[in-house]
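Give me structure tokens for this 439-residue protein.
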Amino acid sequence: MQNGLNLSPPKVKFHTLGCRLNFFETDGIFSQLSKSGFQLADHAELPNYIVINTCTVTNKADVKNRSIIRQAVKNFPGAKVFVTGCYAQTDREVLERIPGVFRVIGNDQKSDLSRQIQEDWSETSQTDFKLEKTDRFAYSDVLPEGHTRAYLKIQDGCNRKCSYCKIPSARGLGVSRGEEDILDQVRFLQDHGVGEIQLTGVNLGWYRNQAGEKGFLSLLEKILSLLDYSRLRLSSIEPPDVGSELAELLTHPRFCKFLHVPIQSGSRKILKEMQRTYHPEGFRKRIEAVLKKVPDIFLGTDAIVGFPGESENEFQETIQLIKDLTFAKIHAFPYSVRKGTKAELLGDPIPGDEKKRRVIQLMKLSEGLNKSYAKSQIGKNEEAILETDGTLVTGNYLKGKLEHSQFGKTLLPGQFVDVKIGDYDEDSNLRFHLLAGNP
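Here you go.
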């Protein structure tokens, strides 16, 4: 409750970069602020506060972070700029030196950010708030703002030691959210009509139960037992956590037929240098186990190109493995040296132009694979959810528009409809046919 002289509600603007986990946490920050009367600033409004939730997965991400921060300071004079996220955790001093940044809050304090903003507004406006300190999983009862799916954070941090990765220093060691807390949140989201719940975390498969034992598959079983309306999607999962048991769970009707499994490289030598805990043959067997059980699954992956020592033949090994396993989407990243990682010692011997060529080659391959997958689904019936921009998204991650747009006038964002997958139109848009029995 607000009691004081300033009756105008404080306005806040957010800019979120990076992974789904960051987007979930941004939702959580705003959810906490909105309970105290804060409102999102319109495009033309001058906000009282700007929250920039940063990413530090690559050097390019770091450059983008700094550019967005400087733009925010320039475009919204007088607004107090709070910077949080992974880059704020690893490079606090760099961000604190940017003129106009009001406060830098690392991931270890991110869940307390809303309280700090409330406290600052209370001092500025003589407005009293009930201030509550929160922990890293305290973004409870968060309903999606501006999109049709809810991100549910079940885990944070990472215990892996990939030689190129800076994220463990940004997120810390693995920690898991309480199982009952997660299940309560699933019930809450489903009861409020959220169509899709996407589990997110730094390393989902690492999830531990209260006894400290691996508990991810058991958690999935319990979540799926609750679902009769909402559908479940995994944001990303590491290769060692993929296998026959997960494949069996993926046959559940409310589990989206979708997996994003980062391959990073198809070369045994490069994977060893990366300190990834699998080899190409093991990766192949795990993905094949899923394909055997769920042949129509949409598979996405990440690949790093230009890792120190990667030859053209080793790059081609990555391409061949991706093709063999019928992946439908590739996120390709040029290797960039991250300060403080083991791979920093290997230098950066592959020229930038060569890395760019390899990224472009993977992007073109991804485009072709995506179309091939979509064409393999033509004529099949799927449940789709309507996005706010009018796009329909199926459980197996096909995105398209209704063949006859007039049929969609009575549909609302977040609504499920049954569709038949059509072909691409002359503008390369995938078309869906609305099935009988829909609104």
